[in-house]
Write a structure and sequence with these properties.
single chain, 572 residues, alpha+beta, Purple Acid Phosphatase, chain A, domain 2, 7-stranded mixed beta sheet, disordered C terminus
Length: 572
């Protein structure tokens, strides 16, 4: 139920933890805390304590600690509100308790003009260790700006009671309904925190991949960024190898590290297995997401009782965050907690998206892979059986996954099989070809290998097409499979840059998906092209009328008559 090293180590003996749900783990911790005194060894690992430690350590965190000492707030991060056109959630961590009200100044320029109340959320971390209790307190500031104007840039800053303020920052709301302005979004998963010596997310490697990828995302300045689970890894060791492996202060470091992007770009999170932190009380749900409720402000558009499940739209793209922890047959500590509510809500949401003529593309992001050939977690049978039929039914364009620490792109898949080959720089038609699945667990943690030992295959590297040996992890054990759908594989650090080109009804819209390494090199690209319907595109509905002067290709895709060979859609 709970494989070693796959959920945070919280002091529970492994012989017990391996058969515990997250709710069971939380109850065990509560029982232990009632019988143990909190000693002086319960060192503070968040807030001022964590930042002071960073300052003493030197390196990349010294400036962060100094800024926090000056302003009293660090790690600003944004998320869309329930309607990205009119609301934005703005958060940060306070390094000291304020003596009065904290406010958010907001306006169209640096004169601001409006003040938004700030809610303070205290997070207490108490972890049994031996006969002691270790942990600390953190204090998070949250403001939700509502009633905003679509497609508008706003300035903001936090203002503390002593008059100190954070630097000015800006964000932009999503465009108005029907707006066809091109935009870009980015994505990766499994990021973690670079160690104090500037190395990789697990203390290994050489170029601090988590920070390098954040810098590239900040440089892109996307409309939003998706992180498909395993966010911070507050259990730095991950396998219970250290006496104090769960360290909530790593969240302080994490938000400080991503602030260069997240202070102006909404970072939208899904939850992974390392994000289930049973130490926190989240009411009667037992998810282990109580820490997220204090640190994050996600849209509240999902089903009741599923706090990390939500949907939002930006321009012509509908996006859904799925909690794959609830569907997994590999790591079952949270499996089935919604009793079918999540899948029912997802079905309704995808149907709504496909019935909306203003939504052209549908993107779903989640943690555990439905399709992967990694030697680590490979494919999760529970996730595949729950999601793939829905993606087929509602013609999902792009599935963004994590969990396996590498980049992998499939050919378009329908009914569990690749419908066609889609090599680098090819164009895929999701309406007829199926869903493209991308694993981008390449966000900073140490890379995994490939199950078949066949090595990487990406631009400039790789041989002829071949079938690949893989496996599916189901509730009754592993099942081997030989697959033809694995198209591109890169066992390194990379992220997605997705350029969206909306179009008018009757024309062809595109999502150009780039895979970019931590060194800034493009190693893969695929274009997703979809006709924009003039009527709701529900399953079984008649095809949209072809505009005058356009012709049908043999595939059924309409293109302008007399398209030149240089047209990107000529070969369709």
């Amino acid at each position: 139920m709970n494989p070693e090293g796959e959920t945070p180590d919280l002091g529970i003996p492994r012989r017990l933890a391996r058969d515990m749900t997250i709710a069971d783990q939380h109850e065990w911790i509560r029982t232990e805390l009632r019988r143990r005194p909190i000693t002086r060894r319960a060192a503070l690992r968040g807030g001022i304590g964590a930042l002071a430690g960073l300052a003493l350590a030197g390196g990349p965190w010294t400036g962060v600690a100094r800024a926090a000492a000056e302003t009293g707030l660090v790690g600003r991060h944004l998320a869309f509100g329930d309607d990205p056109r009119t609301s934005m959630a703005i958060a940060g961590e306070l390094t000291r308790k304020p003596a009065g009200d904290v406010l958010l100044d907001l306006g169209l320029d640096e004169r601001y003009g409006a003040s938004v109340p700030v809610e303070l959320r205290e997070l207490v971390s108490q972890v049994p260790r031996g006969e002691d209790v270790r942990g600390g307190q953190q204090l998070f500031a949250h403001a939700r700006a509502e009633g905003l104007t679509a497609g508008t840039t706003y300035h903001y800053r936090f203002r503390l009671p002593d008059g100190s303020t954070t630097p000015d920052a800006t964000f932009r709301t999503a465009p108005a309904k029907g707006d066809r302005t091109p935009f870009t979004f980015t994505a990766f998963a499994d990021q973690g925190v670079a160690s104090e010596d500037g190395k990789g997310g697990d203390g290994k490697g050489g170029a601090a991949p988590p920070n390098a990828l954040t810098a590239l995302v900040a440089q892109d300045a996307p409309a939003f960024h998706l992180l498909a689970g395993d966010i911070c890894y507050a259990d730095r060791a991950g396998k219970g190898q250290r006496d104090d492996s769960f360290d909530p202060g790593l969240w302080t470091q994490y938000f400080a590290a991503i602030e260069r992007s997240a202070a102006s770009t909404p970072w939208m999170f899904a939850t992974g297995n390392h994000d289930m932190e049973a130490v926190y009380d989240d009411g009667d749900s037992g998810h282990g997401y109580g820490g997220h409720a204090a640190r994050l402000d996600l849209p509240r558009t999902g089903p009741s009782g599923c706090p990390s499940v939500y949907a939002f739209t930006h321009g012509c793209v509908g996006v859904v965050s799925v909690d794959a922890n609830e569907l997994s047959t590999e790591i079952r500590a949270n499996t089935g907690y919604s009793h079918g509510a999540q899948v029912g809500w997802l079905t309704d949401t995808l149907a709504t998206f496909r019935a909306d003529p203003d939504i052209t593309f549908v993107v779903v992001f989640f943690h555990h892979c439905a399709y992967s050939t990694s030697d680590s977690h490979a494919s999760d049978g529970g996730v595949r059986s729950a999601l793939a039929p829905l993606f087929d039914r509602f013609s999902v364009d792009l599935a963004v996954q994590g969990h396996n620490h590498q980049y992998e792109r499939t050919d378009p898949i329908r009914d569990g099989q690749a419908t066609r080959e889609a090599p680098d720089r090819s164009t895929v038609r999701p309406a007829t070809d199926g869903t493209t699945y991308l694993c981008v667990g390449s966000g900073g943690r140490r890379s995994n290998g490939w199950l078949d030992g066949g090595g990487d295959r990406y631009r400039g590297r790789g041989g002829a097409d071949r079938e690949i040996r893989s496996r599916v992890i189901g509730k009754d054990g592993d099942r081997s499979e030989t697959v033809a759908w694995s198209r591109v594989r890169y066992a390194g650090y990379a992220y997605l840059r997705v350029e969206v080109q909306p179009e008018a009804p009757g024309r062809i819209a595109t999502m150009r998906v780039h895979a970019i390494t931590a060194d800034g090199e493009e190693i893969d690209r695929v274009d997703l092209a979809r006709p924009v319907p003039g009527v709701p595109a529900v399953p079984g509905a008649p095809a949209p009328a072809v505009p005058a002067g356009w012709t049908h290709t043999p595939t059924g895709l309409s293109v302008p008559a007399g398209s030149s060979p240089s047209s990107p859609f000529h070969s369709l």
